[in-house]
Design goal:
It is built from three helices and seven strands. By secondary structure, the chain is an alpha/beta fold. The strands form two sheets. Strands 4, 5, 6 and 7 form a four-stranded mixed sheet that branches. Helix 1 packs antiparallel against helix 2. The longest helix has 23 residues. It starts with 8 loop residues before the first strand and ends with a strand. 15% of the residues are buried.
Length: 148
Amino acid sequence: MAIHEFTLEATWPGGRNEVGEIKAGNLKTEISIPPEMDGPGIGTNPDEMLLGAAATCYLITVAAMIERAHLPLKHISLSSVGEVDVTNGVFTYIKITHKPVIKLQENATEKQFNQLEKIIYQAESSCMISRAIKGNVEIALEEKLSIG
């Protein structure tokens, strides 16, 4: 078994509406509470970072699985939406919807396209971040797949 450690250093100058900073590997950014939660909205925030972690993990996993399957990829992009419920002043991340747009090259076969349809769902269950939040945050897909 191999264990990989990821570290993060954070500083925070004081109260709720201050601006802090995080450093983790190549990531260095300011952090604050988002304006949707009555914060200053400077830099990023935990909600964006959770969405970013889930989205980038999914995107990289899909790309790796497409490569391993030797599918003739022409284009891949992703947009993702995170939904946070606010009930009685309690914020709860409830859903992330990934919207991959994947196009195979013109010479792709129907068999390859069918394989792609399976891969986009397999990638979600293979993604480390998706597995980490499973049971707490619903993950949905709204894919646009095509050939050409």
